């Protein structure tokens, strides 16, 4: 049996939020162990691989070889395929770079390791350690050997299917209407425009959208997200995507060379993200944007705050829920209002007819939006189709 370990901060999960948390905890002087259940960080990829870029300097990330394409903006297609173009700066958190997500995740882990973090692969948390109701680490299994890791602060960064939060006593359950089922092909021999990330709305993807993220000339990620509550079987997302591809000659002639699938939360943010000795961050904390399904930026922004607070808690020997609430308040100040408003908007948008989506995109023709958000879109639509915005008055 391996001997038990002690560390200031234990981070469970080495995705972007986990690596960012670990790096910033180490930069602030904490001893940090980050564990990852897979044998390779970032693989298999379960991501559309689009991200915005204006937030990267805030959290100390420099663009590297993981960037495939820098796009000019986004194109949004209504069901009748009227198109609305918007530039990258105003397009929201899925547009800016198209990346190699496994390379990106590895680079963040390298940054964490270079800051002093110990990283252990093929190492899974199997339970939470508690003393007097306080989280004091985790039970861990590596290569069939079980041992305990004792930590002053434990962080759950174990992604969409997070178990660690639940074990620690932080409720992470979500409703079916707050989940999307996603499927994506990497396709070659397609006619994609590398200047834009494309989004197709309406019944082609019930409660979600079809996306095209260009990786290079003739190479693109072609994917779909559909609301779980609007489908009847797990094969349906593929059926919807295959039908869409068959109707678009630029992609019907393409060849599939890769396929990934998975779930994404489109829920409101968690009401609780800390308890005594424990914090939860990133996709595990439901920080994914409910409108776009994008979570990389939010996870990294919250991870920096989480790591900073974790180091402080370790150094002061105070990891009480009250002390860790500095993290909860910090990420909410940056992210919560937008996440909650976008969840409310998602609740409405997932019920819209194709005819209404056509009117929305038609109303945006020729409009210069300062920022692509629900408020600005609805103001533009109200001018042309006031009847469409009646249900959305609260957002205007």
Walkthrough of the structure:
The protein has helices at 16-27, 101-114, 164-168, 236-246, 249-252, 296-316, 321-349, 354-363, 374-384; strands at 5-12, 32-35, 50-51, 67-70, 73-77, 83-87, 97-99, 118-120, 123-131, 134-142, 145-156, 179-188, 196-200, 209-216, 219-227, 255-265, 274-275, 278-280. With 396 residues, it is of the alpha/beta class. The chain has three domains: 5-46 and 103-175 and 269-346, FAD/NAD(P)-binding domain (3-Layer(bba) Sandwich); 70-92 and 176-265, 2-Layer Sandwich (D-Amino Acid Oxidase, Chain A, domain 2), CATH 3.30.9.10; 348-395, no CATH class. Strands 1, 2, 8, 9, 10, 11, 17 and 18 form an eight-stranded mixed sheet that branches. It has a seven-stranded mixed sheet with strand order 6-5-13-14-15-12-16, covered by helices on one side. Strands 3-7-4 form a three-stranded antiparallel sheet. Strand 9 (123-131) and strand 10 (134-142) form a beta hairpin. The longest helix has 29 residues, at 321-349. It is globular. 51% of the residues are buried. The model has no long low-confidence stretch (mean pLDDT 92).
């Amino acid at each position: 049996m391996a001997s038990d370990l002690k560390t200031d901060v234990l981070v469970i999960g080495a995705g972007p939020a986990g690596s960012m948390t670990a790096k910033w905890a180490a930069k602030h002087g904490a001893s940090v162990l980050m564990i990852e259940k897979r044998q390779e960080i970032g693989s298999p990829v379960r991501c559309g691989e689009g991200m915005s870029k204006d937030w990267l300097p805030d959290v100390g990330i420099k663009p590297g070889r993981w960037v495939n394409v820098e796009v000019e903006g986004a194109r949004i297609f209504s069901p009748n395929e009227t198109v609305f173009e918007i530039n990258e700066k105003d397009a929201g958190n899925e547009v800016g770079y198209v990346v190699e997500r496994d390379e990106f995740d590895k680079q963040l882990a390298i940054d964490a390791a270079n800051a002093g973090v110990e990283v252990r692969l093929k190492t899974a948390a199997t339970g939470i350690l508690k003393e007097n109701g306080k989280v004091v680490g985790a039970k861990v299994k590596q290569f069939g050997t079980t041992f305990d890791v004792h930590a002053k602060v434990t962080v759950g960064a174990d992604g969409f299917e997070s178990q660690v939060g639940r074990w620690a006593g932080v409720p992470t359950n979500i409703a079916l209407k707050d989940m999307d089922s996603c499927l994506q092909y990497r396709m070659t021999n397609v006619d994609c425009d590398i200047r834009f990330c494309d989004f197709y709305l309406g019944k082609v993807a019930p409660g979600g959208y079809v996306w095209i993220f260009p990786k290079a000339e003739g190479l693109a990620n072609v994917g779909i997200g559909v609301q779980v509550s609007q489908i009847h079987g797990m094969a349906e997302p593929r059926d919807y995507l295959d039908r869409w591809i068959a109707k678009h000659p630029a992609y019907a002639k393409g060849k599939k060379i890769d396929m990934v699938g998975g779930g994404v939360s489109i829920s409101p943010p968690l009401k609780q993200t800390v308890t005594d000795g424990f914090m939860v961050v990133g996709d595990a904390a439901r920080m994914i944007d409910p409108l776009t399904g994008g979570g990389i930026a939010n996870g990294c922004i919250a991870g920096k705050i989480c790591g900073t607070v974790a180091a402080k808690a370790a150094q002061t020997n105070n990891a009480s829920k009250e002390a860790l609430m500095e993290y909860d308040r910090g990420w909410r100040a940056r992210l919560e209002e937008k996440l909650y408003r976008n969840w409310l908007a998602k609740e409405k948008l997932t019920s819209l007819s194709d005819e209404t989506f056509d009117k929305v995109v038609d109303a945006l023709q020729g409009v210069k939006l300062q920022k692509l958000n629900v408020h600005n879109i609805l103001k533009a639509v109200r001018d042309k189709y006031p009847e469409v915005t009646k249900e959305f008055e609260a957002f205007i």
